[in-house]
Amino acid sequence: MTERKDTKGDLFQVGTDAAGLESFFADARAEPPQPGGDFLARIEAQALAEQPAVRSGVPSRAAPSPIGVLRQLRDALGGWAGMAGLATACAAGIWIGVSPPDGLTIFWGGDAAALGTIGVDPLSSFDLALMEG
Q1: How far apart are alpha carbons 129 and 109 in whole angstroms?
Q2: Given a cut of 60, is residue 91 above it in pLDDT?
Q3: Which of 33-37, 44-48, 76-80, 103-107 has the lowest mean pLDDT?
Q4: Is the pLDDT of residue 9 over 80?
Q5: Model pTM greater than 0.70?
Q6: Distances (CA, A) of 100 to 3, 45, 96, 118
């Protein structure tokens, strides 16, 4: 892959020009080029221009705001997507509880989930609270 296959002609013959170029390469290796002072000054000026300005005084730090209950609940439920799913499930549960579809009577057997048949009276605790005096 690195062999020279075009040895025909005077320009690419091996060994003729290699010694002549080697002296130039040796001179280049002896004195590596150094950047000029003007060039370095321009680079330094550009670098200083890109850096942010120094602020005077004590750096101000914003006081942490108190985290509210709604924000804690939102973070615990997985963000707004979790809260939206919870609100949707809550709305669907209330809707099905208030106006159950006819297909649910197969599972409950008619009006089996009514308050009178279960024996739960939501006002009974209110009555007990009034009787305590």
Answers
A1: 35
A2: yes
A3: 103-107
A4: no
A5: no
A6: 88, 77, 5, 17
Alpha-carbon distance of 110 to 127, in angstroms, equals 30
For every residue of the chain, which 3-state class applies, written as one string?
CCCCCCCCCCCCCCCCCHHHHHHHHHHHHHCCCCCCHHHHHHHHHHHHHHCCCCCCCCCCCCCCCCCCHHHHHHHHHCCHHHHHHHHHHHHHHHHHHHCCCHHHHHHHCCCCCCHHHHCCCCCHHHHHHHHCC
Are 96 and 89 in contact by the 8 Å Cβ rule? The answer is no
Determine the Cα–Cα distance for residues 100 and 96; give it in Å rounded to an integer: 5
Cβ(7)–Cβ(13) below 8 Å: yes
Cα(78)–Cα(7) distance, integer angstroms: 73
**Torsions phi, psi of 2, nearest 5?**
-100, 5
Positive or negative torsion for Cα 36, 37, 43, 47:
positive
| Whether pLDDT at 76 is above 60 | yes
